[in-house]
Design brief:
409 residues; alpha/beta; Rossmann fold; 10 helices; binds NADP nicotinamide-adenine-dinucleotide phosphate
Length: 409
């Protein structure tokens, strides 16, 4: 696969301390795996990170705030979320954060979260990101946070005032990070790995798509465990896949399957909304007349040019093991610790996918160590990806497409 990272360098310590300034706005940063990667400022970007009260997600939130982003910390445990947010705020990072409740096991909670986001994005509208055209200035009278959105618009061929006419903000980055491993089945026997790790993020992403625009990025935190995963869909008599077979009962295979779903979902997102999608160019060119997200339900939906990437953080020392190994037995892992990455190092690839200029307009499906890797054969099966999309929609009682393309708030 094409290496996306730049000149190899000696291994860094996984922190931003190893950054080096380069031409333009981006800097180069050395990662735990020893690569120099490009790193953009995220100033003024609106980023949602699920499961950001601990583990990798917390370090992703920290890294985004360090780059100047506003981070929505989307968590199910609000006490833990507020504590984590308070700790981040006390560090004096240039960005900001807000805590919001979401339980990815509960579709009503996901819908409530998206409704709240829609309202908050709409409320932040006119006061932010007003691109005044070539030679003009970016006026961010509301938040006081500067934005480079105007520069991006210029690059996409938009003209002064178009953002003003669109008159709203967008989700720039969605990180589907929250996940579980080793959980027991739900009361009805269904696999909660599939529900929390795939179906919840699938619903969240689809409902948030109308709130994204050309250049937004979706990062699905998958795993190399997906190489062990297999996905079997049950078909009806006419051969059309209908549901996911409940044929895997051990947590390891269930987790691996859910991570395979993360990569397949990413592939289908790329096909439908990615940089090569039929909508990608029209989205950039026609957004002023059509008004992505401007409330006009009569126009044909056009969403495209959205980056979608599945990433693998490596083996990371977090609390994800808690459902398998109670806290008092964690010492058993001590001999393995030298082989684990820190959560900060685990977050590197996520931050790379969220902010690297190397991934602008590039459909990299699966990243590990900040490099594009070939995912499993199953993960590269376009038919399976399309079927999973349709079956997931059916399981959630939503149309295969449409809900994310319908009238916008
Ligand atoms: N650690 C690794 O070695 C490793 C390797 C490969 C991939 N990954 C992936 O990395 C991601 C983050 O894992 P981690 O290692 O950082 O684990 P972690 O420390 O256990 O963090 C998981 C996060 O997900 C949240 N979460 C779990 N169920 C949720 C739900 N129903 N609704 C909302 N949030 C929920 C947790 O919230 P609570 O605190 O409330 O439980 C927590 O914030 C996961 O997708 C995992 O599959 C991890």
């Amino acid at each position: 696969m094409t290496p996306l990272a730049q000149t190899p360098a000696k291994a860094g310590n996984g922190t931003d301390a190893g950054t080096q300034r380069s031409a333009g706005d981006s800097v180069h940063r050395s990662t735990a795996s020893g690569h120099l990667v490009g790193d953009m400022s995220m100033e003024g970007k609106y980023c949602i990170v699920t499961g950001s009260n601990c583990g990798i997600g917390l370090q992703v939130a920290r890294g985004l705030m360090r780059r100047g982003a506003h981070v929505i910390m989307a968590c199910r445990n609000m006490t833990a979320c507020e504590q984590a947010a308070a700790a981040l705020r006390s560090e004096g990072l240039s960005g900001s954060c807000t805590c919001r409740m979401i339980d990815l096991e509960n579709p009503s909670s996901i819908r409530a979260f998206v409704s709240q986001q829609a309202a908050e994005l709409a409320a932040s509208t006119d006061s932010e990101v007003l691109f005044m055209g070539a030679g003009g200035s970016n006026n961010n009278s509301g938040s006081g946070r500067p934005s480079d959105a105007g520069v991006e618009d210029a690059a996409a061929g938009l003209h002064g005032g178009q953002r003003l006419r669109q008159g709203r903000r967008y989700v720039d980055v969605l990180v589907n990070n929250a996940g579980v491993m080793g959980v027991s089945p739900a009361a009805d026997g269904s696999d909660r790995h599939l529900t929390i790790n795939h179906l919840g993020p699938y619903l969240l992403t689809r409902l948030l798509l109308p709130h994204m625009t050309h250049g937004s990025r979706i990062i699905n935190v998958a795993s190399r465990a997906h190489y062990n995963g297999s996905l079997s869909l049950a078909s009806n008599p006419d051969g059309r896949a209908e549901t996911i077979r409940n044929d895997t009962h051990h947590w390891f295979w269930q987790y691996s399957r859910s991570k395979l779903c993360n990569v397949l979902f990413t592939a289908e997102l790329q096909r439908r909304y990615g940089y090569d999608s039929p909508f990608a160019l029209t989205a950039a060119k026609s957004s002023s007349s059509r008004g992505i997200g401007d409330g006009s339900s009569s126009n044909l939906p056009v969403i495209g040019g959205i980056g979608a990437h599945a990433v693998s953080p490596g083996l990371v020392d977090t609390g994800i093991i808690r459902y398998l190994l109670p806290g008092q037995l964690r010492w058993l892992l001590a001999p393995l610790r030298p082989f684990f990455r820190t959560p900060e190092q685990g977050a590197e690839v996520v931050l790379y996918a969220a902010s690297s200029p190397e991934l602008q307009a590039r459909n990299a499906l699966f990243l590990h160590d900040c490099r594009e890797r070939q995912p499993s054969v199953a993960a590269r099966d376009p038919r399976l990806a399309a079927d999973l999309w349709r079956v997931s929609a059916a399981l959630l009682g939503m149309p295969e497409e449409g809900e994310e393309l319908g009238p916008r708030e």
